[in-house]
Amino acid sequence: MTAAEGDPSGLDAAELRLEFELQALGPVVVAFSGGVDSALLARVALDTLGADRVLAVTADSASLAEGELEHCNELAAAWGLPWRSVATHELDLPEYVANGGDRCAWCKTALMDQLAPIAAERGATVVLGVNLDDLGEHRPGQDAARRRGAAFPMVHAELTKDLVRRLARRRGVQVWDRPSMPCLASRLPYGTPVTVPLLRTVDRAEAALRSLGFDDVRVRHLGDTARIEVPAGQLVRAAEQSEALTAALVELGFRYVTLDLAGLRSGNLNAALAPGHRG
After folding, report:
1. Span 183-212, mean pLDDT?
2. Most buried in the list 21, 42, 158, 186, measured by CB within 10 Å?
């Protein structure tokens, strides 16, 4: 029986590749957001390297949704994964606040300012949960992190998002099917200055919509207009609940509430960038 016949889904091979990449790196500090990518990376690192050679670190940032820090802490505690949080200070950086096309680079710079010294003290490498599918998107933060010495073991292991989710499910990672939750600043159009009040409004808006049953949702903050994005398959249900959705968002200060009929597309505000600024 060939390897392909014994592992038709490719999961065994993918798992071995990721374990090999982590073993080659040695001790690691995992940038831990609590989403499926970083959770799988942390879980495999813990199982492969042992608790004394792994530290998960979560950025305590204004762009983190409420409850996410506690979520990361609880997830790590359930696994016996060493964990800590660090305060990042991206809002102190004028380049980040300006919200240009390179905003994510300044966010990762602020993160690496905290993680790099921690890793150096432990003789470790900072690792990020970047997968192959992420490479095709506008993510200047990846280049900024790489320049500061971060490694992307899931990319070297050739893991796609689908493989990440299936491996996470196999490993018993509770968040294997959790929707992606990009930082709150990604809901602001480029050029709109990033402020704590705007981030908090977006956070409350999305929390309100999740309470109405829309787990995978974005609320784009367009001044006095809120643009709701849900997966295409949920558009009809969203339209049917338009009165409740509108009431929830008007209460937060929006004057107009719209529903994007194209459905949820991660990073769709990047379309506004000039080609030379796409990263």
Report:
1. 97
2. 42
